[in-house]
Amino acid sequence: MVERVWRPGTALDIALTMSPHRHGGGDPTWRREADGAVWRTSRTPAGPGTMRVSVSAAEGAVEGRAWGPGAEWMLDTLPALLGVDDDRSGFTPRHGVLIEADRRHAGLRIGRSQRAFEALVPAVLEQKVVGREAWRAWRWLLAKYGERAPGPGDEQLRVFPPPEVWRSIPSWDWHRAGVEGVRAKAIVNAALHADKLEAAPDSAETDRLLRLLPGIGVWTSAETRQRALGDPDAVSVGDYHLPSVVGWALTGEKTDDAGMLRLLMPYAGHRYRVTRLLALSGNRPPARGPRMAVRDYRSF
């Protein structure tokens, strides 16, 4: 085990800041304890690792403990994961809902995992399906192909498989996971280019590389860059719910992608930050009309 203490110097909500890396209830790469401590696994450049992150309120310090070949890397990059590089310069909330959300969630930071392919796979699984369907597939694939996480944590914790494992998953196991051919092929093809994605120098180049890949569009690229690179301006255009959330919170009316982008123009450079805060505000339109159905591709 390796230990590290980091003092952020500002208010920090570790669970809220790290929550974008959690994919549904029962995510095998994530656990949260009753005292607020968070366990997270990752396949680092040095190998698999498990990390437990907690806060010592009395000392104003974040305490990290890690296990496995990737332990040192996870602790070295813990400040980045918790948003040490998050620059709020130029962000001035102008709408009442946004001002209140920013006040209530003062401990929110936009962090970066620095693991692009690890962020990409769940984003692809979440394409054009409801969350429960994507998260079920994520759990099944990690249980089947992820390795047992190092350290003393929950025995069900698993580490994200390496690219060569994703490339080797047979069609029948994608089917058992409930993933149809389009998403499966997108992941398998992306696995061939994982090294290039990890080596991209910035968000713009990562976006370019991602959108050259079949099955990867604007939404998937944004979701990946939000998590891997902490891009505060990466907007999830094409999201089923987000335009309505943004429109309702800022104008009291639903809108579409084009309308959402117009509303977010004053916040250029921080558009993802704004959508994150608005989603946390709870200010949502009434739930009326058709909902996306949960599909089970295993029965097809």
Automatic annotation (TrEMBL):
It comes from the Bacteria. GO terms for biological process: base-excision repair, AP site formation; DNA alkylation repair. GO terms for molecular function: alkylated DNA binding; DNA-3-methyladenine glycosylase activity; DNA-7-methylguanine glycosylase activity. The keyword DNA damage applies. InterPro entries: Alkylbase_DNA_Glycosylase/TA (IPR051912), DNA_glycosylase (IPR011257). GO terms for cellular component: cytoplasm; protein-DNA complex. Keywords: DNA damage, DNA repair. Transmembrane segments: none annotated. PANTHER family: DNA GLYCOSYLASE, DNA-3-METHYLADENINE GLYCOSYLASE. This is 3-methyladenine DNA glycosylase/8-oxoguanine DNA glycosylase. It comes from Sinosporangium album.
